[in-house]
């Protein structure tokens, strides 16, 4: 099918769901794919060594119907990243992305993630090695700077380095990463977002794909950003309120016939959950990603309660999802969520 082709043309990646550690696993991506055919989905960040030496099916496995799906790698060794990129290509991913934005202590201790903003030459060498290793698009996700860096200089230097070595796209989280003095959780809101900085970068690089990320809550906001940049990426908003993805294909891609019905999404996830359980998995592996599906709707509290409690039982099946969905359907519209 069209979405399973290798994506050497990056122009159709106008909307993406961000890579999020502990969140965007294969079950999450399968769930999100039911809402949108076209959005680009990302894996959690996978450290290059894990991709090379780990259990590939467990760490990198995904379903064909997740496409288009991209693998995000973490690391700073060009040779290792090149080998990990080859593994990702062989597994069937359609893009390889390098993480230059994560500020967590775990990432800093490995000398990769956001701290690579301080060494654009290293990032360029990593991109070059991956481009030489695979035929897929190789992209970078970064911040506008770290700590006391001048964001005008830091972002220009990083962008110039990666585009010179052939990067197909640069996704920019429009906030500095503070590697000292702030926790990763605090860094989600501090310091302030600076979307204009990303807009300026795009104006300076009219022929390069530049996408924006950070604090975007609605599709209305996403559409406005697309007046200034090539792509928009949502993270927590898409995860915590997955229903907003239902309008992505129509509003972002102009595909009026793509949206699935809510009932069809529930049916698919029930079938998917039961198949996962047959293979030895647990229902909660899947339902933990579905808790926010009816965010703000009447009955959402009951939906959350059922999934959060009953799905954790050892013998839980998709009947739990169906009971939770029935609670949504039978809750009076005027009842607060």
Automatic annotation (TrEMBL):
<dbReference type="GO" id="GO:0010181">
    <property type="term" value="F:FMN binding"/>
</dbReference>
<keyword id="KW-0285">Flavoprotein</keyword>
<keyword id="KW-0547">Nucleotide-binding</keyword>
<feature type="binding site">
    <location>
        <position position="173"/>
    </location>
    <ligand>
        <name>FMN</name>
    </ligand>
</feature>
<feature type="binding site">
    <location>
        <begin position="235"/>
        <end position="236"/>
    </location>
    <ligand>
        <name>FMN</name>
    </ligand>
</feature>
<feature type="binding site">
    <location>
        <position position="72"/>
    </location>
    <ligand>
        <name>FMN</name>
    </ligand>
</feature>
<feature type="binding site">
    <location>
        <position position="141"/>
    </location>
    <ligand>
        <name>FMN</name>
    </ligand>
</feature>
<keyword id="KW-0288">FMN</keyword>
<feature type="site" description="Interacts with tRNA; defines subfamily-specific binding signature">
    <location>
        <position position="185"/>
    </location>
</feature>
<feature type="domain" description="DUS-like FMN-binding">
    <location>
        <begin position="17"/>
        <end position="320"/>
    </location>
</feature>
<comment type="similarity">
    <text>Belongs to the Dus family. DusA subfamily.</text>
</comment>
<dbReference type="InterPro" id="IPR018517">
    <property type="entry name" value="tRNA_hU_synthase_CS"/>
</dbReference>
<comment type="similarity">
    <text>Belongs to the dus family.</text>
</comment>
<feature type="active site" description="Proton donor">
    <location>
        <position position="102"/>
    </location>
</feature>
<keyword id="KW-0694">RNA-binding</keyword>
<dbReference type="InterPro" id="IPR035587">
    <property type="entry name" value="DUS-like_FMN-bd"/>
</dbReference>
<feature type="binding site">
    <location>
        <begin position="213"/>
        <end position="215"/>
    </location>
    <ligand>
        <name>FMN</name>
    </ligand>
</feature>
<feature type="site" description="Interacts with tRNA">
    <location>
        <position position="99"/>
    </location>
</feature>
<feature type="site" description="Interacts with tRNA">
    <location>
        <position position="188"/>
    </location>
</feature>
<dbReference type="GO" id="GO:0102264">
    <property type="term" value="F:tRNA-dihydrouridine20 synthase activity"/>
</dbReference>
<feature type="site" description="Interacts with tRNA; defines subfamily-specific binding signature">
    <location>
        <position position="301"/>
    </location>
</feature>
<dbReference type="GO" id="GO:0000049">
    <property type="term" value="F:tRNA binding"/>
</dbReference>
<keyword id="KW-0521">NADP</keyword>
<dbReference type="Pfam" id="PF01207">
    <property type="entry name" value="Dus"/>
</dbReference>
<feature type="site" description="Interacts with tRNA; defines subfamily-specific binding signature">
    <location>
        <position position="304"/>
    </location>
</feature>
<keyword id="KW-0819">tRNA processing</keyword>
<keyword id="KW-0560">Oxidoreductase</keyword>
<dbReference type="InterPro" id="IPR001269">
    <property type="entry name" value="DUS_fam"/>
</dbReference>
<comment type="function">
    <text>Catalyzes the synthesis of 5,6-dihydrouridine (D), a modified base found in the D-loop of most tRNAs, via the reduction of the C5-C6 double bond in target uridines. Specifically modifies U20 and U20a in tRNAs.</text>
</comment>
<dbReference type="InterPro" id="IPR013785">
    <property type="entry name" value="Aldolase_TIM"/>
</dbReference>
<protein>
    <recommendedName>
        <fullName>tRNA-dihydrouridine(20/20a) synthase</fullName>
        <ecNumber>1.3.1.91</ecNumber>
    </recommendedName>
</protein>
<dbReference type="GO" id="GO:0050660">
    <property type="term" value="F:flavin adenine dinucleotide binding"/>
</dbReference>
<dbReference type="InterPro" id="IPR004653">
    <property type="entry name" value="DusA"/>
</dbReference>
<keyword id="KW-0820">tRNA-binding</keyword>
<dbReference type="GO" id="GO:0102266">
    <property type="term" value="F:tRNA-dihydrouridine20a synthase activity"/>
</dbReference>
């Amino acid at each position: 099918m069209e979405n399973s082709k290798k994506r050497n043309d990056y122009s159709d990646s106008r909307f993406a769901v961000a890579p999020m550690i502990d969140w965007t696993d294969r079950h999450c991506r399968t769930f999100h794919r039911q809402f949108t055919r076209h959005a680009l989905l990302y894996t959690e960040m996978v450290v290059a060594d894990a991709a090379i030496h780990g259990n590939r099916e467990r760490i990198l496995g995904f379903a064909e119907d997740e496409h288009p799906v991209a693998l995000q790698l973490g690391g700073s060794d060009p040779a290792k990243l090149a080998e990990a990129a080859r593994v990702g290509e062989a597994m069937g991913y359609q893009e390889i992305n390098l993480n230059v934005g994560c500020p967590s202590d775990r990432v800093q201790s490995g000398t990769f993630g956001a701290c690579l903003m301080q060494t654009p030459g290293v990032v360029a060498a990593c991109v070059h090695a991956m481009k030489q290793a695979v035929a897929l698009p190789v992209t970078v996700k970064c911040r506008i700077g770290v700590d006391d860096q001048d964001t005008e200089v830091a972002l220009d230097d990083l962008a110039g380095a990666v585009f010179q070595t052939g990067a197909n796209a640069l996704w920019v989280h429009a906030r500095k990463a503070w590697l000292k003095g702030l926790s990763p959780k605090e860094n989600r809101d501090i310091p302030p977002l600076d979307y204009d900085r990303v807009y300026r970068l795009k104006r300076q690089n009219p022929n390069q794909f530049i996408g924006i990320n950070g604090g975007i809550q609605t599709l209305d906001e996403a559409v406005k950003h697309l007046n200034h940049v090539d792509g928009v990426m949502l993270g927590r908003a898409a995860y915590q309120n997955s229903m907003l993805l239902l309008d992505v294909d129509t509003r972002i891609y102009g595909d009026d016939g793509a949206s699935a019905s809510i009932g069809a999404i529930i049916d698919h996830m029930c079938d998917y959950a039961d198949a996962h359980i047959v293979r030895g998995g647990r229902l909660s592996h899947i339902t933990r990603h579905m808790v926010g599906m009816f965010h703000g709707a009447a009955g959402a509290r009951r939906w959350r309660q059922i999934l959060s409690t009953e799905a954790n039982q050892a013998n839980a099946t998709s009947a739990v999802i169906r009971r939770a969905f029935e609670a949504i359907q039978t809750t009076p519209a005027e009842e607060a969520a």
